[in-house]
Amino acid sequence: MKIGVIDYGMGNLYSVEQALLRLECEVFITSDINMLNQMDGYLLPGVGAFPDAMRRLSELCLDDYIKQLATTNKPLLGICLGMQLLYEDSKENGLTKGLGIFTGNIQKFDELDSQQNRVRIPHMGWNPLSFTHQPEWLDGLDKEDSTHVYFVHSYLAQNTRQHEVVASSTYAGQFVPGLVQKDNFTGMQFHPEKSGPFGKYLLAKWVKQVKGRRDQP
Amino acid sequence: MLTKRIIPCLDVKEGRVVKGVQFVSLRDAGDPVELAKFYDEQGADELVFLDISASHEGKETMVDVVRQSAAELAIPFTVGGGIRTIEDMKNMLRAGADKVSVNTSAIERPELIAEGAAFFGSQCIVVAIDAKWSEVDDTWMVYTHGGRRVTQWTAVKWAQEATRLGAGEILLTSMNQDGEKSGFDIALTKAVRDAVNVPVIASGGAGNAQHFYDVFTQTDVDAALAASIFHYKETSVKEVKSVLREKGVSVR
């Protein structure tokens, strides 16, 4: 199975590459569209600021490439900033338009909670996910499983659609969409490659879906 | 809600773990990657590698240790020790470290924190503070050079300044408690915890699982770090977590 890690110069791709290699994927880190066309699935990583990321994607014509994946059957997984880019827009350093796959906006965590206490930002550490529904590719999720995953982010998706949010966490009283899904697009706000056994489980399930879609186009 | 993090720390010298000789179950207990994997499997939430190599070769070796660890670990990890420039940070982060920690070099040139935060993001920049109580000053003073030199900074002021410059996390070690195994320094931890708005890791003094419970219930600290009690198997990450869980502290 060929996974294309979309390389647009943002963030460290080594850990995620290693996690996919452990799942016996062939991994290609590339920004070349001809190469990307040969892939079975895509990973959109990202660490850094939203406006820089969109600018780079657009310079490489990767923004249109990602949008047109909606007309294909090939899965794409956005991680952390990679998930945020799939939303309509972000308020990080001004207002920047995103890829518009998911409905919602990216904004900073509120600095005060409902009791007027200062909120520690970034939201960093292990937080359990609560699942509201299960996409097909996640069937067999055991309710008893520990669902802790590792988050590091200062911005989050808001005004989201209920049916697009598969699982969420709570931080400082705020609803944090953690795992989102729409058609062949998946987003994970946390880092599955750093989320211990449960992160590995989620990645393995996603990879299995890529295989399923490849074999049954 | 976020869980409290338990973080084993590995001292690495010339590519070898300095402590950790008690790990008879490991093929090579001196291999930092082997030991790191063991802690990952035990349920450690994060790891810290502290490079105490003196030689240039030792520092080169550390990059390999980081690369191998990133390939094997499924949890985040921080690398500290001898990181003095943006280039040093870049080498470690590119090799797969999630965060870098700076100590002496940040005191000597505080702009390093701001530069690192601008370049890599605050979440990557940990400022390690070694603090010791001073009767004369009636507060905790910051030390550098592995605790050999006192600075003009109080722990609270330096933590605030480091955060203002962009530090994303504070790794706070009590020099009074370090190695004593009589518990974390609650007063110091509380003072720094209340002074900044980023996560704080308590370090120094852990002797048993109860000490972790104490620091998590008597302060609002985010994480606690220990080295020797885990290396010498006086307790384990698993045991600490099960004690905390039983007593109602939220852990992974």
Automatic annotation (TrEMBL), chain A:
Question: Start and end of every Glutamine amidotransferase domain?
Answer: 5-207
Task: Give the EC number(s) under which this enzyme is classified.
Answer: 4.3.2.10, 3.5.1.2
Q: Which Gene3D superfamilies match?
A: 3.40.50.880
Q: Does the record's keyword annotation contain Cytoplasm?
A: yes
Identify the catalytic residues.
Answer: 80 (nucleophile), 191, 193
Query: Where does it live in the cell?
Result: Cytoplasm
Please give the Pfam families that the UniProt record associates with this protein.
GATase
Keywords, A to Z?
Amino-acid biosynthesis, Cytoplasm, Glutamine amidotransferase, Histidine biosynthesis, Hydrolase, Lyase
Spell out the InterPro entries in the cross-references.
Class_I_gatase-like, GATASE, Imidazole-glycPsynth_HisH
The yes or no answer to whether the keyword rRNA processing is present is no
- Reactions listed under catalytic activity: 5-[(5-phospho-1-deoxy-D-ribulos-1-ylimino)methylamino]-1-(5-phospho-beta-D-ribosyl)imidazole-4-carboxamide + L-glutamine = D-erythro-1-(imidazol-4-yl)glycerol 3-phosphate + 5-amino-1-(5-phospho-beta-D-ribosyl)imidazole-4-carboxamide + L-glutamate + H(+); L-glutamine + H2O = L-glutamate + NH4(+)
Pathway entry: Amino-acid biosynthesis; L-histidine biosynthesis; L-histidine from 5-phospho-alpha-D-ribose 1-diphosphate: step 5/9
The entry lists its GO molecular-function terms as: lyase activity
- Principal localization reads cytoplasm
Subunit info?
Heterodimer of HisH and HisF.
Q: What does this protein do?
A: IGPS catalyzes the conversion of PRFAR and glutamine to IGP, AICAR and glutamate. The HisH subunit catalyzes the hydrolysis of glutamine to glutamate and ammonia as part of the synthesis of IGP and AICAR. The resulting ammonia molecule is channeled to the active site of HisF.
User: Which PANTHER family is this protein grouped with?
Assistant: IMIDAZOLE GLYCEROL PHOSPHATE SYNTHASE SUBUNIT HISH
Q: What is this protein called?
A: Imidazole glycerol phosphate synthase subunit HisH
- The gene from which this protein is expressed is hisH
UniProtKB/TrEMBL annotation, chain B:
Q: What class of enzyme is it?
A: lyase
* Active site residues of this protein: 11, 130
Q: Where on the tree of life does the source sit, at the highest rank?
A: Bacteria
Q: Keyword Membrane, does the record have it? A: no
User: Quaternary structure per UniProt?
Assistant: Heterodimer of HisH and HisF.
State the SUPFAM superfamilies in the record: Ribulose-phoshate binding barrel
Any idea what this protein is called? Imidazole glycerol phosphate synthase subunit HisF
Q: EC number(s) in its UniProt entry?
A: 4.3.2.10
Which GO MF term does the entry hold, naming one? Answer: lyase activity
Task: Please tell me where this protein is predominantly located.
Answer: cytoplasm
Pfam families from the UniProt entry: His_biosynth (PF00977)
The pathway entry for this protein reads as: Amino-acid biosynthesis; L-histidine biosynthesis; L-histidine from 5-phospho-alpha-D-ribose 1-diphosphate: step 5/9
The entry's family comment says: Belongs to the HisA/HisF family.
Functional summary from the UniProt entry: IGPS catalyzes the conversion of PRFAR and glutamine to IGP, AICAR and glutamate. The HisF subunit catalyzes the cyclization activity that produces IGP and AICAR from PRFAR using the ammonia provided by the HisH subunit.
Identify the keywords attached in UniProt to this record, alphabetized.
Amino-acid biosynthesis, Cytoplasm, Histidine biosynthesis, Lyase
Catalytic activity as recorded in UniProt:
5-[(5-phospho-1-deoxy-D-ribulos-1-ylimino)methylamino]-1-(5-phospho-beta-D-ribosyl)imidazole-4-carboxamide + L-glutamine = D-erythro-1-(imidazol-4-yl)glycerol 3-phosphate + 5-amino-1-(5-phospho-beta-D-ribosyl)imidazole-4-carboxamide + L-glutamate + H(+)
- UniProt subcellular location: Cytoplasm
Entry-linked CDD domains: HisF
Species lineage: Bacteria, Bacillati, Bacillota, Bacilli, Bacillales
